[in-house]
Amino acid sequence: MSDVILEAVNISKRYQQRRRPPIWAVRSVDLALNSGQTIAVVGESGSGKSTLGRIIAGVLPFDEGTLAISGHRLSQVDAKLSRGLRRSVQLIHQDPFAALNPAHTVGNILRFPLNAMGIKSADRVRERVQDLLSSVGLTPPNRYVNQYPYQLSGGQRQRVVLARALAVNPKVLVADEAVSMIDVSMRQNILGIMKQLQVDYGLGIVFITHDLALARNFAQRGQTIVMYAGSIIECGSTEQVIQEPLHPYTAMLRDAVPDPDPTKAMGTLVPISSETPDLTWTREGCRFAPRCPFAVTLCVSSTPSLTSYTGEHSVACHRASLGVSWAMESEKKVT
Amino acid sequence: MTTTILQVENLVVEFKVNQDRVRAVDDVSLELRAGELVGLVGESGSGKSTLAYAMMNLLPRQGRLVSGKIALATVGDISRWSEPDMSRVRGNRISMVFQATQSTFNPIRTLESQFKLLFRAHGINVQEGLIKARRLLQRTQLDPQRILTSYPHQLSGGMRQRVGIVFAMVLEPDVILLDEPTTALDVLSQRVVLDLIRDLRSQTDAAMLFITHDFSVVSNLSQRIGVMYAGKLVELAPTERLYRFPQHPYTALLTRAVPSISQKHTELVGIPGQPPHLSDLPPGCRFSPRCPYVQERCRERTPPWSKISADQGVACFRWSELGEELANV
C-alpha cells in the first residue's frame, strides 16, 4: 500500500511583467508522489521544471492550485505545522559550490539543521553528524568534519548537500539537476547514494533533469513527466514514455539524445523550427504546434488537455489520441 | 593515404598557482589528419581545454607552454610564435569554437560588421568574404540576411553557436578546435549543432578536434577519440575500437558510466574515488588510486605510451593482458 506524501493539484505560477502580459512559468500542473517512488521531470530550459521543483519544495509561492504534504494542505495549516511539513521536502540544487556556506566547516553545516530539529547536546550532534556523513559515503567522517567546502571536490560537496538534507529526516527529495555539474565518472556514485537513501528511508524523489538518458537510468522503475512551456505534455511510466513516446515533442527529445555506442545514430525526428515557446501565450492552441511537423488545424485552434491514453500513460496531443507512430509518420513525409 | 595537417608533439603546459607550478598538460602528442574529426574526452581538470587554448596561443597569463611542438603542415611549428605572427594564422589556419556563445561575439556590433572585421583583419575582400559567409549560413538552416543584420543577443544560444561555427570556418582554416560547443545548449539545439558539424565535416578538408566531457556527444561523429586524465593522454584509438575494446581501464569505466537511451537497462557504476588535484598528483600512473586493476608497478612508475598500431596507443602497463577483461566491463 503506497501513500501519497506530496500532492500538487492544478498548480500555476505567473511572473508579472511591466506593460507586457505575464509569463506563465508553470500552468495547471498536477503531480502526486508516493513514498519510495521516483518521478523524473524532464524538459528543456524554460520548460518550467525547476520552477515546479521549487514550488513543490515549498520555497516558491504559487498563484493557483493547492499543494499538500502528507495530506495537509499547506494553505490551511498554522505556521508551525507548515514549517515542519515544508522541512520534510528537501531541495538539492544543481550547484554544490553555491549551496554551501564557504565560511563554515562541514561539521557546522550539518549542525545547524540538527539544532533546528531540537538536537542540541554536543554528543548527540557529533553522533548524528558522523552517521550522516557515513550514509553519504564520506568516510571516515572525521576526515571531513573540520573541512571547509573549498577543500572538497564537486562530488564531495554534493554529498555534503545530501547529508544536510537528510539531517531533518525528510520524506521527499527534490533533486534539481543534482548531478549536472558533477564529473561523469562520479555521477553514478552520487545517484547510487540517492537510490540507497531512497530504499533506507523510503524517500520519494522528484528527479529534475534535461537529460532523458539520465532520467531513464535513474527513474527506470518510476514515472516520467515531460514538460513543455510550463505544462505537462506527457506522463507515464518511464519505460513507456521513453520507449513509446506519444507526444511528438517527447519523441524528438528522445531522438536527439546522443548514444555512447558509436554505431547508433540519432533518430530522424526534428522540430520544424528552433523557436523557443512563447510563455505569455494565453490563447487557445497547442503551444508546440508552431514547431510541430504533424500539426493540423485543430492543433492551432484548440488546446489539447492531458488525457489518459493507456492506463497511466497520458498525453496532451490531439493527434496522439489517433494512435500514430511518430517515427513512421516522419518516414512517410520523407518519401 | 590521408595527410597529416597538425602534429602536436610532447606538449607540456604549466600553470602558476600561488607559489606552485602545476602541469595542466603533460607530454601530450596528437596528430590530426585532413577531413578528420577527432574527439577529445576528459573530465574537468583533465587538460583537454588547456590543450586547445595552447594550440591557439590563447593561454591565460598564469599559463605557459613549457616544451613541445605544435606543427601545422602549412606553416610549420607555431608553438613559439610571437603574438603578431600568431594573429595572422589564428582564424585563418587554426580556429576555435567556444563553449560560451554569449561571449563569442562582440555584443554591440551586428554580426555582419563582425564578419567584415574578420575579413579585413586577414586582408580578404569583404564582399567575397560575405558571399562565402552567406553560403555557409545557408547550410545552418538559418536565414543569412536575418542573421547578418542581427546583434548577438537577438539570437538564441543554439543559433549563436551555429553562427560561431560558421565564423570559425569561413576563412577555411586547416584546423578547427571545438571546445564543448554543445555543452551550454538544450537537447534539441545540441542536436542541430551536431548535425551541422557532421554536415560541414563532409564538406571540408579541415581537421576538427571536438573537445567534450560527454563521450556520447562525439561517439557517432568522430573517426578517432583521445581520452585525457589529469593532464595526460591515456588512450587514443579509432572510435568504435575505443568503445568496444578499450585498452585503458579509465576509458572502459568512463564509457560504461554513461547512460544510454537505446540499450537495455544495465546498472551503471561510477568510478570509485575522484580525479586527483594537479598540485597533488599520485606517484606513478595518475589513475592508479582509482584503478581496480592496479599493480605495484603502477604506483611506482609512470606507464609509457605504448603504440598498439598507427592509429592506436595507450598509456597503461597492463593493456595487453587486460584487453579482453576491459571489453566486458
Description:
Chain A has helices at 49-56, 79-87, 106-116, 122-135, 142-145, 154-166, 184-201, 212-218, 238-243, 248-255, 297-301, 326-334, and strands at residues 4-17, 20-34, 38-42, 64-69, 72-73, 89-92, 172-176, 204-209, 223-228, 231-237, 307-310, 313-315. Chain A starts with a strand and ends with a helix. Chain A has 335 residues and is an alpha/beta fold. Chain A has twelve helices and twelve strands. Chain A is globular and about 70 Å long. In chain A, helix 3 crosses helix 4 (122-135), helix 3 runs parallel beside helix 6 (154-166) and helix 6 (154-166) runs parallel beside helix 7 (184-201). In chain A, a hairpin with a 2-residue loop joins strand 11 (307-310) and strand 12 (313-315). By secondary structure, chain B is of the alpha/beta class. Chain B has a domain at 245-329. Chain B is built from twelve helices and twelve strands. Chain B has helices at 48-55, 83-89, 111-121, 126-139, 144-148, 157-169, 187-201, 215-219, 239-244, 249-256, 296-300, 319-327, and strands at 4-17, 20-33, 37-41, 63-72, 76-77, 94-97, 175-179, 207-212, 224-229, 232-238, 306-309, 312-314. In chain B, strand 4 (63-72) and strand 5 form a beta hairpin. Chain B is globular. The mean pLDDT of chain B is 93. The A-B interface holds A 44-45, 153-156, 183-192, 210-214, 216-217, 220, 242, 252-266, 270-271, 274, 276 and B 43-44, 156, 158-159, 186-192, 194, 213-217, 219-220, 222, 239-240, 243, 253-255, 257-263, 265, 268-272, 274-275.
